[in-house]
C-alpha cells in the first residue's frame, strides 16, 4: 500500500494506492498543528480501504510548514555569522526595487536582524585562504551571548573552501549543543554571495520549526503503526524526515512539487506530453509546465520575495484560490485575493462563521457548485450564506449579486491567466500548442475560461483531480541533489576536469541518498566567457567537452537566436541528482466507482442562464460530456462551458476539446 498525504491551505488530502485501486479522502487542514489534519485524512482513507496502518509500505508527505513560515517571515531566532565586512549582504541584496513603479513597495526584511549578525575575522578568495580564522571558539562565545535557536554561517567563497565554515560549526556545536547550524557550502554549494546567504538564512530560520512539526508527526505516525514518512522536496523527489528537518529550505515547495510529479504521470499516461498545469486549491494557485512528459526544473527562484538558490521544480504561485476573499479597493475596483478565508473560518458558504465573500461563494451563487451539496471533507454548502456575503460587496460596487459573483470569478481567472503567462509566453512558450491540465479542488471550475483566454483548445481533468498532489507524492521517486560552483574556462576546462567534478558529485549525491546503486543525472550551468548569466544544459549526447559545447550552443541558439562561433565557454556549476524511481501506479485502476448519475439545474455562463446537465460520480471510460454541463467528481467539480465537449479516457481523465 502506497500512502500520499498533502497539506493544503484549506484541506489535507490523502491517497492510498493498493491492489489496483486508488482510494482518496480529505480532511480539513488544522493550522495550529498540521499533523492532526494529516492523521485525520489518513484515518479516513484507511477506513475507506478497510485497511490498517501496518499495511502501509510507503508514507510520502508534502506540507506547507516551511512555505507558510517563509511567506509570513516567521522563523526561529537566528544568528548570522558572515565574513567581516559582509554581514549585511542579505539586507543590501542586489539593490533592485521590489516594484519598478511603486516606490513605496519594499523587499521583505531579512530574517536576521542587524543586532544578530556576527562578523567572522577571516577571508578566503577563489584560490584559497587570504586571512586565517585564528580563534573559532571566541566566535562561538560571541554567538552564544545572543541566545540563538539557529545559526547561519555564510563565509566568502566557502563553496570552494569550506574549512572555516566547518571550524565555526564545530566550535558552536561544542558551545551550544542542540542549536541548529546551517552552513552555506552544505545548503547551496554555489557562488553568488547574496543568493547563497539569503538561502542559508532561510534554511537556518525555518529548520527548527520544521523539525518540531516533523517530530510531532513522527510520534503520531509511530504510535499508530505507520512507517516513517518520506518528505517531498522542492526538487520533486522524496527525502528522509531527518534530511528535511535539517534543511527546511529544501521543502519550501514541498506541496506543489507533488502536484508537478502527478502532472508528469498524467502526461505519460494520457499521451498529451506537453501540458500547462494549474493546481487551484483553497488558498493559492500553482502553475508549472510539462514538456515531453517531463517536469521543467530551475536552479532557483524567489518565494515570498526571497531568493532560494536551490534546484527545484519550476513552479509559479499566486494567491488565487477558492477561499480567496473578494473586496473593493480604494479606487473602487473589484479584487479577489491574495488574502484567503483559509480552513478556519473558510468561505461564507461553509457555515463556519465566515462572512466575507470568496471565489467559492461566487461559484455557488452561479450554480457551478451544488446548493446544499457536500464538498470533500464533510463540508456542506449554504447558497443563502454565499448570497448574503456577495450581496454586501455588490452594494458597495453598485452591482447585482449575480453580476458581482461573475466579476469575482473573472478577477480570479485573470490572476491565474497572468501566472500562466509568466510560465509560458514570458519564457518563449506558445500555450496554444499545449493542453491545459486542471486540478486541485477548484481548478477544473475555472479551466474553460482560462483555456479560452490563452487560446488553448484541450483541457484534461483527471479522475483524482481534487487530490492529485497527494497521488503524485505516492508515486514520487526518492531523490538527492548536490551542486558545486567550478568556474572553469580556457585550458582549465577539459574533458578530464569535467569527469572529475561529475564523478565526485555523483558519489556525494548517492551518499546523501544512502544508496550506491541509485541512477545519477547531471546538469551543467554554462555561459560564453564574459556573460553574466548562464544556461542549464542537461542530457548530454556524450561525456566530453565537445558534447557540452555543442549542447550549450544549440540551447543558446534556441533561446536567443544566435551562437558565437569559436568563442570560449565557461562551465559555471555542475549538479548531480541521484534518484530511485518511485512505485508504478496504474491510473486506469480506479477506486470502486460511485454511480454516474444525471440531473439538471440552472448554471450561469457569461451572463446567460443555461439549463445545464449535472453529472455526478465517477465517470466511466468512453462517457461523453457536452457543455453546458457540470461534472461533480468525488473531490473536485468541472465546469464544462458551452462550446466544449469531450469524453472520458481509459484512466478516467475527462478530455475536453473546444469547438470551432
Low-confidence stretches: none
Quaternary status = single chain
Total helical segments: 16
* Assigned CATH architecture of one domain: 3-Layer(aba) Sandwich
Describe the structure.
The chain has 660 residues and is α+β, with helices and mostly antiparallel strands. Among the domains are: 75-209, Rossmann fold; 254-321 and 413-475, Nucleotidyltransferase, domain 5 (2-Layer Sandwich), CATH 3.30.420.40; 324-411, no CATH class; 479-580, 2-Layer Sandwich (Dna Ligase, domain 1), CATH 3.30.1490. The protein has 16 helices and 37 strands. Strands 13, 14, 15, 20, 25, 26, 33, 36 and 37 form a 9-stranded mixed beta sheet that branches. The chain has a 6-stranded mixed beta sheet with strand order 3-2-1-4-11-12, with helices on both faces. The protein is globular, with a radius of gyration of 26 Å. The two termini are 45 Å apart. The relative contact order is 0.11.
List keywords for this structure.
Nucleotidyltransferase, domain 5; Rossmann fold; nine-stranded mixed beta sheet; 660 residues; six-stranded mixed beta sheet; 29% strand; alpha+beta
Write a brief structural summary:
With 660 residues, the chain is of the alpha+beta class.
Write the topology of this structure.
Layout: E1 2-7, E2 11-18, E3 21-28, H1 34-49, E4 58-62, H2 65-71, E5 78-83, H3 89-92, E6 117-120, E7 123-125, E8 128-131, H4 136-144, E9 150-154, H5 163-175, E10 180-183, H6 184-187, H7 193-224, E11 230-232, E12 238-240, H8 241-246, H9 254-270, E13 275-280, E14 285-291, E15 294-295, E16 297-298, E17 301-303, E18 306-308, E19 312-313, E20 316-318, E21 324-328, E22 334-340, H10 359-365, E23 374-375, E24 379-380, H11 383-397, H12 401-423, E25 435-439, H13 443-454, E26 458-461, H14 468-475, E27 478-489, H15 495-513, E28 519-528, E29 535-538, H16 545-560, E30 569-580, E31 597-605, E32 608-616, E33 624-626, E34 629-632, E35 637-640, E36 644-648, E37 654-658
Parallel strand pairs: 1-4, 4-11, 5-6, 5-9, 9-10, 13-25, 25-26, 32-34
Antiparallel strand pairs: 1-2, 2-3, 7-8, 11-12, 13-14, 14-15, 14-20, 16-19, 17-18, 21-22, 23-24, 26-37, 27-30, 28-29, 28-30, 31-32, 33-36, 34-35, 36-37
Helix pairs in contact: 1-7, 2-7, 4-5, 9-14, 10-11, 10-12, 11-12, 12-13
Amino acid at each position: 500500500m502506497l500512502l500520499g498525504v498533502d497539506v493544503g491551505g484549506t484541506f489535507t488530502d490523502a491517497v492510498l494506492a493498493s491492489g489496483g485501486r486508488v482510494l482518496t479522502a480529505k480532511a480539513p487542514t488544522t493550522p495550529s498543528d498540521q499533523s492532526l489534519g494529516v492523521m485525520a485524512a489518513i484515518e479516513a482513507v484507511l477506513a475507506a480501504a478497510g485497511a490498517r496502518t501496518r499495511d502501509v509500505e510507503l508514507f510520502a508527505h508534502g506540507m506547507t510548514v516551511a512555505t507558510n513560515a517563509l511567506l509570513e517571515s516567521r522563523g526561529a531566532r537566528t544568528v548570522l555569522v558572515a565574513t567581516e565586512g559582509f554581514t549585511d549582504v542579505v539586507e543590501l541584496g542586489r539593490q533592485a526595487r521590489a516594484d519598478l513603479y511603486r516606490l513605496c513597495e519594499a523587499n521583505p526584511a531579512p530574517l536576521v536582524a542587524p543586532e544578530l549578525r556576527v562578523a567572522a575575522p577571516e577571508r578566503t578568495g577563489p584560490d584559497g585562504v587570504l586571512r586565517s580564522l585564528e580563534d573559532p571558539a571566541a566566535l562561538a562565545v560571541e554567538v552564544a551571548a545572543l541566545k540563538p535557536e539557529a545559526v547561519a554561517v555564510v563565509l566568502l567563497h566557502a563553496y570552494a573552501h569550506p574549512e572555516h565554515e566547518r571550524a565555526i560549526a564545530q566550535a558552536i556545536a561544542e558551545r551550544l549543543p542542540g542549536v541548529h547550524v546551517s552552513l552555506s557550502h552544505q545548503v547551496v554549494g554555489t557562488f553568488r554571495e547574496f543568493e547563497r546567504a539569503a538561502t542559508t538564512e532561510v534554511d537556518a530560520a525555518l529548520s527548527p520549526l520544521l523539525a518540531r512539526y516533523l517530530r510531532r508527526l513522527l510520534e503520531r505516525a509511530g504510535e499508530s503503526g505507520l512507517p516513517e514518512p518520506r518528505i517531498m522536496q522542492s526538487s520533486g523527489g522524496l527525502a528522509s524526515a531527518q534530511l528535511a528537518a535539517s534543511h527546511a529550505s529544501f521543502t519550501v515547495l514541498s506541496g506543489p512539487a507533488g502536484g508537478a510529479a502527478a502532472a508528469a504521470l498524467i502526461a505519460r499516461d494520457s499521451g498529451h506530453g506537453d501540458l500547462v498545469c494549474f493546481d487551484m486549491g483553497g488558498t493559492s494557485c500553482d502553475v508549472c509546465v510539462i514538456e515531453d512528459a517531463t517536469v521543467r526544473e530551475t536552479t532557483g527562484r524567489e518565494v515570498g520575495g526571497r531568493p532560494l538558490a536551490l534546484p527545484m521544480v519550476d513552479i509559479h504561485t499566486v494567491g488565487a484560490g477558492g477561499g480567496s476573499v473578494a473586496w473593493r479597493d480604494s479606487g473602487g475596483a473589484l479584487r479577489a485575493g491574495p488574502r484567503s478565508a483559509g480552513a478556519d473560518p473558510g468561505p461564507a458558504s461553509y457555515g463556519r462563521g465566515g462572512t466575507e465573500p470568496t471565489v467559492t461563494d461566487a461559484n455557488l451563487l452561479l450554480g457551478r457548485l451544488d446548493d446544499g451539496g457536500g464538498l470533500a471533507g464533510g463540508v456542506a454548502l449554504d447558497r443563502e450564506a454565499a448570497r448574503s456575503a456577495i450581496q454586501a460587496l455588490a452594494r458597495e460596487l453598485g452591482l447585482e449579486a449575480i453580476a458581482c459573483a461573475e466579476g469575482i470569478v473573472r478577477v480570479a481567472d485573470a490572476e491565474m491567466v497572468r501566472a500562466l503567462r509568466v510560465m509560458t509566453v514570458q519564457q518563449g512558450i506558445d500555450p496554444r500548442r499545449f493542453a491545459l491540465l486542471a486540478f486541485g479542488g477548484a481548478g477544473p471550475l475555472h479551466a474553460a475560461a482560462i483555456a479560452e483566454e490563452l487560446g488553448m483548445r484541450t483541457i484534461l481533468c483527471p479522475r483524482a483531480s481534487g487530490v492529485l498532489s497527494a497521488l503524485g507524492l505516492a508515486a514520487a521517486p526518492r531523490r538527492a541533489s548536490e551542486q558545486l560552483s567550478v568556474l572553469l574556462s580556457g585550458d582549465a576546462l577539459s574533458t578530464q576536469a569535467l569527469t572529475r567534478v561529475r564523478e565526485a558529485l555523483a558519489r556525494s549525491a548517492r551518499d546523501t541518498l544512502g544508496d550506491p546503486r541509485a541512477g545519477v543525472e547531471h546538469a551543467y550551468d554554462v555561459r560564453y566567457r564574459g556573460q553574466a548569466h548562464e544556461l542549464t544544459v542537461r542530457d548530454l549526447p556524450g561525456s566530453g567537452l565537445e558534447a557540452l559545447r555543442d549542447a550549450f550552443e544549440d540551447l543558446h541558439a534556441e533561446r536567443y537566436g544566435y551562437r558565437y562561433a569559436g568563442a570560449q565557454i565557461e562551465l559555471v556549476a555542475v549538479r548531480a541528482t541521484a534518484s530511485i524511481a518511485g512505485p508504478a501506479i496504474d491510473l486506469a485502476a480506479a477506486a470502486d466507482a460511485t454511480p454516474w448519475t444525471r440531473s439538471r439545474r440552472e448554471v450561469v455562463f457569461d451572463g446567460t442562464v443555461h439549463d445545464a446537465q449535472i453529472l455526478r460520480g465517477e465517470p466511466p471510460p468512453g462517457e461523453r460530456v457536452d457543455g453546458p454541463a457540470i461534472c461533480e467528481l468525488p473531490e473536485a467539480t468541472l465546469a464544462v462551458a458551452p462550446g466544449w465537449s469531450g469524453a472520458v479516457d481509459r484512466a478516467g481523465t475527462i478530455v475536453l476539446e473546444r469547438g470551432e
